[in-house]
Amino acid sequence: MQINWYPGHMAKTRRMIKENLKLVDVVLEIVDARAPKSTHIPDIFELIGSKKLILIMNKADLAEEKITDLWGIYFAEKGLVSVSVNSRNKVGFKDLDEMIHDFSKEVKRPLRGMVVGVPNVGKSSFINQIVGKKAAKTGNKPGITRGKMWLKATDKLELLDTPGILWPKIEQESVGLKLAFLGCIKEELLDVERISLKLIEFLVKKHPERLAARYKIETPQSPVAILEQIAKSRGFIISGGRPDTLRAAKTLLKEFQDGKLGRISLEKPAGDEDLIIENERMQKGDII
Ligand SMILES: Nc1nc2c(ncn2[C@@H]2O[C@H](COP(=O)(O)OP(=O)(O)OP(=O)(O)O)[C@@H](O)[C@H]2O)c(=O)[nH]1
Ligand SMILES: [Mg+2]
Q: pLDDT confidence of 272, banded at 50, 70, 90?
């Protein structure tokens, strides 16, 4: 099936980011703290040139704290300034305030920051926390923000919200899977059942007890059997008494994304050993 994987609006957003760079003093790149590398825009420096960058590891409340700390060290070693925040409950913003304060000393007018990142990582929620009200539209699916939007945070800070961007080709399957697990890719573009089976594989390996407790699963079982069990334990049955595995797959992904299975990081700075994924190269035009 041919999928319109790289829709025109993403290319348009990249152009818009480039055009607006001259207006801003700093770029704030939002990543998901559960997979800071896989949700990081790979060619960010090509996109933003020599502009200053602050990396914001958002949704830190859903990631494993120790691993997020390791990421902070990893980025510092690479010369990247990073902070971890929770934009749902305004945690971690003090460090950021200080950073922004330092930056703002260098400019006479209010400091202008552009907020960029892949879809659904919490760019608009982050801005709303700084602005102190629900100024930018948010939602738990990718593609909520449609165009650019300037928001006045304080007398000293103005922020530009931008729509989420992805890149035309995701080379590594593990990166594509993590983006899918975290809700960064539109559900309509995904083989949801296949993605959920991969997530089950990961959870069986790393957090079997959480899977068992939440969905009343007796392990060991194959991922397919577990998905069927999830459907049964939730009463998702289709005609003929068969388990509705598509509905179970959607439910599992949603609950994972919302942190219902607890705090779970998907990658560590040391490598991708957390994910049991054969690293086959993806085919052109193929999505996950
Ligand atoms: N638990 C938790 N949820 C968050 C956090 N930040 C954002 N969310 C949730 O993540 C979802 C996506 O948030 P948005 O702010 O719309 O994300 P976005 O990056 O602006 O998304 P697009 O505009 O679609 O690219 C929403 O359901 C938010 O409530 C956070 O720090 N912790
Ligand atoms: Mg948004």
A: low
Judged against a pLDDT cut of 60, whether residue 108 lies above it is answered with yes
pLDDT at residue 277 tops 60: no
pLDDT one-digit tens code per residue, 45-86: 999 999 999 999 999 999 999 999 999 999 999 999 999 999
- For residue 212 the two structure tokens come to 């068992």
Is the minimum distance from the CB of 113 to ligand 1 under 6 angstroms?
no
Q: Does the pLDDT of residue 275 top 60, yes or no?
A: no
Which residues, chain by chain, have CB under 5 Å from ion ligand 2?
123-124, 144-145
Distance 119 CA to ligand 1 centre (A): 9
Annotated binding site for GTP: 58-61, 86-87, 120-125, 164
Does 30 share its domain with 139?
yes
| pLDDT band at residue 4 under the 50/70/90 scheme | low
Print the domain residue range for 233: 191-257
- Here the tokens at position 228 are 């069927």
Is the minimum distance from the CB of 123 to ligand 1 under 6 angstroms?
A: yes
Number of domains composing the chain: 2
Determine if ligand 1 sits within 6 Å of the CB of residue 39. no
Ligand 1 proximity of 72 Cβ (cutoff 6 Å) = no
How far, in Å, are 17, 33, 44, 62, 238 from residue 263 at the CA level?
32, 11, 27, 5, 32
**Residue nearest to ligand 1 atom 27, measured at CA:** 140
- The answer to whether residues 223 and 80 belong to one domain is no
Is the same domain home to 145 and 31?
Answer: yes
